[in-house]
Input
Amino acid sequence: MSSLTSRRPYLIRAIYDWILDNDLTPHLLVAADAQGVEVPAQFVTEEGKITVNISPSAVHGLDLGNGYISFSARFSGQPYDVHVPPGAVLALYARENGEGMLFGEVEPPDPPTDPDAPPADDGPEADEPARKRPHLKVVK
Output
């Protein structure tokens, strides 16, 4: 069985739409030190995080893609192009009431796929079904 794509970008788009549909202001909490993140460093907290307002009135050219979230925004009057892999998004929530989704930890980026590469040999256990406990988190 091939590996599944990350569900995080899909959840981000859904929660973003839900926040806007309820006339609230979407904010992204991003792990600024994660691989592939391009944000203005002077606005990153000591904990290595940055919170960004991504409402339509605050950003230009918002693209909530599967590989990257990208947009242009102003920080203290200075324009910046922001690029964030969805795996670096720690939370997406409404500023007004904190409702949204907490993703928790950084999700490593998918390795680039090479169509000419041979399939990985995962050993004799590769054909057995994975026996993992499901892990769902309670979101309040």
